[in-house]
């Protein structure tokens, strides 16, 4: 019976492996999807809290899959990383942004920030610096300010991260620590690295304006940011109450559905023509 169990287990394992790697071939799918133009980007406005004027956009990737429909990035970025495909996928993203850049330039003020999410596997890839340089060369010269959005979990190799950050600043990129407050050693990282922005995770913003008291962690984060003279961006702002609270508490930039959903280039242009939207 034991042997039978072991054989069954093995067969089940093999079947699972077959389905995952041969039938679905996620790696091959991503490569094909790049070729077939199934990926596209959306842009989510980031506004200055004092004026509500647009100061930049965060670029977010989408996969329009022929049978599965819209696949959100949370579902394919990790896959791409595991399959060693994050570099080609991000290069593709860079091309998509470069293609939109002339149109973006018409809508956004000089110095507008383009927030790009960098996956940890890419940060640690050998080609990272060259990839960024190639991307910059594809954009209109001296117009946009690139902001690389990086999460805490990407900085496990502290020595490498420190050197990379130094290089990025030297090359004129800005760095945002993304999803701030959701990791473990956040405060230590703040001391150690020279971030330009902290993006406060939407989990903290959610709590504002509900019957529960505002998170003491959020209060602490804001106090700390002020004392360290860090520029703050609130993510996931969904109500005017939240926006008002954040403005009163000195948060510099706001991003979220209440300001604007992530928009395709066409929708962004439309919103630009009807500025009442912001
Ligand atoms: P993120 O960097 O934290 O991006 C913000 C996410 O919050 C986006 O989800 C955005 O659509 C969503 N969001 C914005 N405002 C609101 C709001 O008011 N309420 C709620 N509930 N959600 C809001 P999205 O586009 O599904 O992206 C999820 C994550 O996938 C991103 O989180 C980012 O970590 C990753 N990602 C997206 N695009 C890329 C990419 O091009 N490269 C890499 N490496 N990662 C990406
Ligand atoms: Ca981000
Ligand atoms: Ca985030
Ligand atoms: Ca996130």
From TrEMBL:
<protein>
    <recommendedName>
        <fullName>cyclic-guanylate-specific phosphodiesterase</fullName>
        <ecNumber>3.1.4.52</ecNumber>
    </recommendedName>
</protein>
<dbReference type="GO" id="GO:0071111">
    <property type="term" value="F:cyclic-guanylate-specific phosphodiesterase activity"/>
</dbReference>
<dbReference type="GO" id="GO:0005886">
    <property type="term" value="C:plasma membrane"/>
</dbReference>
<feature type="transmembrane region" description="Helical">
    <location>
        <begin position="1"/>
        <end position="20"/>
    </location>
</feature>
<keyword id="KW-0973">c-di-GMP</keyword>
<keyword id="KW-1003">Cell membrane</keyword>
<keyword id="KW-0812">Transmembrane</keyword>
<keyword id="KW-0378">Hydrolase</keyword>
<keyword id="KW-1133">Transmembrane helix</keyword>
<feature type="domain" description="EAL">
    <location>
        <begin position="23"/>
        <end position="276"/>
    </location>
</feature>
<keyword id="KW-0472">Membrane</keyword>
């Amino acid at each position: 019976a034991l042997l039978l169990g072991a054989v069954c287990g093995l067969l089940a394992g093999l079947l699972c492996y077959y389905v995952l790697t041969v039938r679905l071939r996620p790696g091959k799918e991503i490569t094909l999807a790049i070729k077939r133009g199934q990926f596209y980007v959306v842009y989510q406005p980031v506004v200055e809290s004092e004026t509500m004027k647009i100061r930049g956009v965060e670029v977010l990737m989408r996969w329009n899959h022929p049978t599965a429909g819209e696949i959100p990035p949370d579902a394919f970025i990790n896959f791409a990383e595991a399959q060693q495909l994050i570099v080609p996928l991000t290069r593709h993203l860079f091309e998509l942004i470069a293609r939109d850049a002339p149109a973006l330039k018409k809508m956004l003020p000089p110095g507008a920030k383009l927030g790009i999410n960098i996956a940890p596997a890419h940060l640690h890839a050998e080609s990272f610096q060259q990839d960024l340089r190639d991307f910059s060369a594809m954009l209109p010269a001296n117009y946009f300010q690139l902001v690389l959005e990086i999460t805490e979990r990407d900085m496990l190799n502290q020595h490498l991260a420190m050197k990379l950050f130094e290089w990025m600043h030297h090359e004129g990129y800005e760095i945002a620590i993304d999803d701030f407050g959701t990791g473990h050693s956040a405060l230590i990282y703040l001391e150690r690295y020279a971030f330009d922005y902290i993006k406060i995770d939407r989990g903290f913003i959610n709590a504002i304006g509900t019957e529960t008291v505002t998170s003491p962690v959020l209060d602490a984060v804001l106090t700390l940011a002020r004392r360290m003279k860090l520029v703050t961006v609130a993510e996931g702002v969904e109500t005017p109450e939240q926006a008002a609270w954040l403005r009163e508490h000195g948060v510099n930039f706001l991003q979220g559905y209440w300001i604007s959903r992530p928009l395709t280039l066409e929708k962004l242009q439309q919103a630009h023509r009807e500025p009442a939207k912001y």
